[in-house]
Amino acid sequence: MTALQATALALVALGGTGVVITREPLRQAMVAGVFGILLAVLFFLFQAPDVALSQIGVGSVALPLMILLALSRIHTDEDGDG
Amino acid sequence: MAYVPLAVLVPMLGATFLAAARELLSRALADAVSLALGIATVTLCAIALAHSVDHTIVYWWGAWTPRPGGVALGIDFAFGPLDAGMAVFAASLTVIAGVFSWRFLAEVDALYHAILLVFLAAMVGFSLSGDLFNMFVFFELMSVSAYVLAGFKIDQRSPIEGSLNFAITNSAGAILALFGIGLVYSKTGALNLAQIGDQLGRHGVDAVVVAGFTLIVCGFLVKAAAIPFHFWLADAYAVAPTPVCILFAGAMSELGLLGVARVYWTAFAPVLDPHAEALRWTLIAIGLGTAFVGAAMSLAQHHLKRMLAFATIAYMGLFLVGIAMLSADGLAGTAIYVVGDGLVKAALFVCVGIVQHRRASLDEVDLHGRGRDLRLTAGVFVIGSLAIAGLPPFGPFLGKALVEDAAAHGHGLWWMPAVMMIASAVTAGALLRAGARVFFGWGSAGQPDESSDEAEGETEPETDKPHDHTPVLMWLPAVALLLAGLAWGVLPGLADAALRAADRYVQPNVYAAIVLHGAPPEPTTPVSLSASGASYLYGVGAVVGALMVAAAGVTRLRAVDATRPLFAWLRKLHSGHVGDYVAWLTAGVAVIGTAFAITLR
Amino acid sequence: MSRRARLALFLPAALVLAVGLLWSFADLPPFGHYSGIYGIVLGHVAVAQREATNVVSAVTFDYRGVDTLGEEFILFAAAVGSAILLRAQRGEDAAGAAAERSDRRADVVARPVRALGAALVAPTIVLGAYIIAHGQLTPGGGFQGGVILASAAVLVYASGQYLAVRVVRGVAPIEIADALGAAGFALIAVGGLVFGLAALHNFLGYGISGSLFSAGIIPLANVAVGVEVAGGVTLIVAEFLDQALMRRRSG
User: Fold this and answer.
1) Is the pLDDT of residue B288 over 80?
2) Is the model's pTM score more than 0.80?
3) Which one of B267, B466, B556, C34 is separated from B220 by 20 to 30 angstroms, measured CA to CA?
4) Strand pairing of B76-79 and B57-60?
């Protein structure tokens, strides 16, 4: 294993822990986006570009987007009821 | 052999058509299209069943037949009569659920039928598939459609929570299974079940095999609601619409057990066979634990659908005991038991749906005596509960008798029939007690004698308004399902055919030869199987036991009251909090993994 | 269960699970050592058999195409499911209220953001189409390109605009796109049944390796998956935004 791959693995481990530790949903969405990019870098380093492209699309675009949409919908529902 | 891929492609294409043409189809037209597609799928699966009776059918997608030397490049569907029979059963239940929805669910559009058809395609694909990752893909497709169907009545609050518990717990199980698949692939370099079995059989058991087997089996057991993975099932059934519950109870959880059986008998049996005895004991422990937890919890419920949910869990435990025998006779008995029990349970769910339609309530205490004029429903419910307890000659009796015989005569577990009789009697007793209170008004009305568990306390009463007429399309399925359950028990030659099919199922080297090397099918010898005389006694004993439990529950004996603190702790565990469920799931995987690590080396 | 009891149950179990997994890793092949036969065989035969230079795409859409069919329908079920569940929750006036909020957003979103969003939409669409079309040649393919196309729609919303779509007889185009993409892949499978040897058989000509129209059905399957993914993800986003993403233009 090269040093670069080992570094990427360590960063992914830290990033995953960071996502779990973050409590507030809005902040967690952003940390999840960064985590997605770290995973994509890891997949590139392990010579899997297709998976890395999918990971960028899903982990950094779609997943934080879904969280933000759900949060905005909760807020609009609350504003509507209140 | 075009019927094999079409059995999956037809419902898929139908679902996309219904989704695209949603606004052009009226409710009746959408119902009709969905019914036609369901019947088409049943026909295709029945053709598959008829062709596979004598030899295992293998169909390679994309015409990627294996390379010489037994390397599979593509994905295959490889099935025998047990798998194809499960597919036919799942498809038939989907048709019945669709028909029942015509009157029961007032406002659905074509999208509901689209998701139902996707669920059907996934169940058929899972039953027929011969590739480990392909099984996982169809398993996930089944799960996602199920989450949508469970949360369907989302304008009430509790469907969201029930569906969410369902989704989170099952996704956790699926992730564990995927990890196990990854471990197995890294060791064998193959995803085809026959090829995995071939590769694993060349080396011995090591840590990767144990870990992979644990994770894959636990992932499937989450779907099959074995303890301690069962917590999601009652929450999901309580909130899902009743036609969807028919499908969940009759087909979806049973497919989890089919997954365990198939993965064991094709991929892991070559390497784990020397340790079969130890594996049998672990699976028996899980199965009996599930049966008794389900039985105890169903006594403590008064929400009728949650009661049926825990009854489902209890019988899942007994099915798992049948599979745990790890032999052909146990497997044959379980196959018959699954279908017979599924038919009768579906009839019970339809009865509960009729009660909900007529009285707009699902609480046993609230409904006390209010079902007195629903005479046909009462009859079907009482007979169904007795049938599920093991009344001869219904289907569940035949299946349970064969499993008991396999345990007692085949493996020397002389105490198993008595234990199964007790579990079955307690569960059916809870159902009979509910039936007595609701349909006959026996026992005293007023305060509930058992306090409800916390999850049940959150369940809101159904808020649809009551109707004063039961449409034909609602009581006809109930009667038809009950009669089918009776027919299943008396069908001549059924047990023999099941044993013949199971004999082929439990031979992994023959399976590998047929799948990987295209070997011609070997001639099968005719065999004979029937329920022994002693099992009739156990069946009648279970029925008598159920009646006694029901009577004790209705009359509120002092002895019954004394056992209440024992149940209180168990009820408190079913809290409805998903964090608890995931904690139990992790604990379960850890315990089962440790058991396998110790016993399978 | 109280939080402490839950953690007391979970943490030891998670520890046992972690130790068990680490113990099982000890028996894996060493890092970088590929012991399986699948990749080795494919590396030798895939380009010759299918004239596709992206072997991963060849595996995804040809060798193991039925897995992709299932996965595609998972996304279809999720998109249709979100349409079912979110529409049931929506009140009568929600679409109108969402449209009003969207109009107000157009005033609030800063001008540089609006300009950047508007400028990025067209290159995003081109990039997505490029990745879909070259699925059999370079890394990427239908799924990746489809997500990029869907993000173009989200960019429109993020820059304070909305898509005005002409509605024909009340049918929404993104639902059609989602369903047609999924149906397209299933029809390719049926096409293999009708024109080829088995379902999902690669029954079209394979062309020359490296050219845009090569590898038989793989480019078609890529397009189908791309349309489906773009439609599905956009549908989910549009449902969450209560039709603020797309306004119906009558007539």
Assistant:
1) yes
2) yes
3) C34
4) antiparallel
